[in-house]
């Protein structure tokens, strides 16, 4: 009896020692150590094999679920935000020992739902292994052995390391000045650069890394933004030629004397070249002949200023209200008024390059109200809507400070011919001219833009105005001498009028 009693604990102790060697985490747990001690109870030592197998089959339950962790959290506090990159791993060390971790993301989470997919593994009480699989955000609840819980927020975004390395390699002058921060599927560029040219290079470089699925958020600042002033001259020459020739014969038989008027009202309003009437018979012969030449010159010289990389615009004209029909909620139609601008307009975007060069994207435009309009027939009657004729050009050039370029070729040529004739008689050769009227009108116009960009710098603090040298006259100079400006000798002292 005694021999069997002492042989059993020896075998049990050897089996438990082997199990503890395979599972060091179990030995570190107070609960596991108390359960496997041979001095605790001989009854526990009497069944060695089931205890060792059960401990080896479920190590996570024994190691990660102590008695304190099975209770509710006595206190929940917020931890730091952990930022991860897709495909990268991270090792986090908690401040206090952790018994168990609980992930906040659902199973099969992806970037479309906004929840990040993160693999988390508790390596030890003070070490957690994290691996990011997809972009988004999630959280991790850490249950401490002391009953306190900590909530960690995990944000997974694009990997900024390749872009940061490309900036350091391709743009070495910006190394350390530009920071790349991931935000979900986007990359945020922050820092301060020299000019707008470097901003464009960085945005284009970042766009190649994010691809079509993400976007680049530009939060870069410029040390000394350059201002560009644009001097524009707009000239339009419009020529109109009008020729009229026709015969109008009217007759009514009656009695009376004849009276003739030659060049009647021709120079005043152009009604007729020759007009003859008979007072009793009211017979009249009218010969129309008119020739008009018109020349119009329109000139505008706007000056617009804008920062490098920003857009500037100018408009000299007006606005017109155009009725627009819209369907309402009850199935009817509501008429609203929409504003349309017309006149001489200009929009441009300058970019100052290295060496003082200016890259300029210019869009000049000239629009005017048409005489004809657009006819609209509705149930309430016919109406004529205004029609706007627009001529626009869009170009990009590269100039130096003070150089000019011209945009021309915007030519309009309208030819209008009207013939009114008596049937058959108006088609006769030679005599047919007496039975028809002809109107021929030609409208020609050409538009020219001359653009000159200039680099502008702010004035110094000691600038002078033209009125600084003005000296008001005293009473004697004004009343007796009729002087509007005084002299230095008669200038009033400081504080006197």
Automatic annotation (TrEMBL):
<dbReference type="GO" id="GO:0015627">
    <property type="term" value="C:type II protein secretion system complex"/>
</dbReference>
<dbReference type="Pfam" id="PF13629">
    <property type="entry name" value="T2SS-T3SS_pil_N"/>
</dbReference>
<feature type="domain" description="Pilus formation protein N-terminal">
    <location>
        <begin position="81"/>
        <end position="156"/>
    </location>
</feature>
<dbReference type="InterPro" id="IPR004846">
    <property type="entry name" value="T2SS/T3SS_dom"/>
</dbReference>
<feature type="domain" description="Type II/III secretion system secretin-like">
    <location>
        <begin position="291"/>
        <end position="457"/>
    </location>
</feature>
<dbReference type="InterPro" id="IPR001775">
    <property type="entry name" value="GspD/PilQ"/>
</dbReference>
<protein>
    <submittedName>
        <fullName>Type II and III secretion system protein family protein</fullName>
    </submittedName>
</protein>
<comment type="similarity">
    <text>Belongs to the bacterial secretin family.</text>
</comment>
<dbReference type="Pfam" id="PF00263">
    <property type="entry name" value="Secretin"/>
</dbReference>
<keyword id="KW-0732">Signal</keyword>
<dbReference type="GO" id="GO:0009306">
    <property type="term" value="P:protein secretion"/>
</dbReference>
<dbReference type="InterPro" id="IPR032789">
    <property type="entry name" value="T2SS-T3SS_pil_N"/>
</dbReference>
<feature type="compositionally biased region" description="Low complexity">
    <location>
        <begin position="38"/>
        <end position="69"/>
    </location>
</feature>
<feature type="region of interest" description="Disordered">
    <location>
        <begin position="38"/>
        <end position="74"/>
    </location>
</feature>
<dbReference type="InterPro" id="IPR050810">
    <property type="entry name" value="Bact_Secretion_Sys_Channel"/>
</dbReference>
<feature type="signal peptide">
    <location>
        <begin position="1"/>
        <end position="27"/>
    </location>
</feature>
């Amino acid at each position: 009896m005694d021999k069997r009693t002492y042989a059993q604990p020896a075998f049990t102790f050897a089996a438990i020692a082997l199990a503890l060697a395979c599972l060091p985490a179990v030995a570190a747990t107070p609960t596991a150590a108390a359960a496997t001690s041979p001095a605790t109870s001989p009854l526990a030592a009497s069944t060695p094999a089931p205890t060792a197998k059960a401990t080896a089959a479920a190590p996570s339950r024994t190691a990660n679920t102590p008695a304190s962790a099975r209770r509710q959290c006595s206190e929940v506090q917020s931890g730091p935000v952990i930022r991860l990159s897709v495909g990268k791993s991270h090792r986090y060390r908690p401040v206090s020992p952790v018994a168990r971790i609980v992930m906040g993301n659902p199973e099969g989470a992806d970037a479309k739902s906004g929840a990040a997919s993160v693999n988390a593994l508790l390596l030890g009480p003070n070490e957690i292994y994290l691996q990011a699989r997809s972009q988004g955000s999630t959280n991790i609840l850490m249950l401490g052995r002391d009953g306190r819980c900590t909530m960690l927020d995990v944000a997974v975004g694009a990997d900024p390391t390749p872009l940061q390395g490309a900036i350091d390699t391709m743009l070495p002058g910006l190394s350390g000045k530009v920071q790349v921060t991931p935000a979900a599927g986007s990359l945020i560029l922050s820092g301060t650069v020299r000019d707008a040219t470097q901003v464009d290079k960085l945005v284009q470089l970042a766009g190649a890394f994010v691809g079509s699925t993400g976007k680049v958020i530009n939060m870069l600042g410029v040390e000394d933004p350059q201002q560009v002033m644009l001097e524009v001259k707009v000239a339009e020459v419009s020529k109109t030629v009008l020729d009229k020739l026709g015969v109008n014969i009217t007759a009514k038989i009656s009695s009376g004397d004849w009276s003739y008027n030659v060049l009647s009202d021709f120079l005043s309003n152009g009604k007729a070249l020759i007009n003859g009437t008979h007072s009793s018979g009211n017979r009249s012969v009218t010969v129309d002949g008119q020739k008009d030449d018109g020349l119009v010159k329109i000139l505008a010289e706007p000056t617009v200023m804008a920062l490098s990389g920003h857009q500037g615009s100018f408009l000299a004209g007006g606005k017109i209200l155009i009725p627009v029909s819209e369907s309402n909620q009850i199935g009817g139609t509501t008429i609203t008024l929409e504003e349309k601008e017309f006149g001489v307009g200009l929009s441009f975007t300058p970019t100052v390059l290295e060496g003082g060069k200016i890259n300029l994207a210019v869009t000049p435009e000239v629009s005017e109200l048409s005489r004809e309009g657009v006819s609209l027939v509705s149930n309430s009657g016919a109406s004529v809507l205004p029609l706007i004729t627009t001529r626009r050009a869009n170009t990009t050039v590269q100039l130096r400070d003070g150089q000019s370029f011209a945009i021309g070729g915007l030519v309009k040529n309208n030819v209008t011919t009207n013939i009114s004739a008596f049937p058959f008689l108006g088609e006769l050769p030679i005599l047919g001219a007496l039975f028809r009227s002809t109107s021929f009108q030609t409208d020609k116009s050409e538009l020219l833009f001359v653009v000159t960009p200039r680099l502008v710098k702010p004035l110094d603090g000691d600038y002078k105005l033209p009125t600084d040298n003005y000296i008001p006259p005293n009473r004697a100079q004004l009343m007796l001498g009729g002087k509007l400006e005084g002299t230095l000798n008669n200038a009033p002292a400081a504080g006197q009028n």
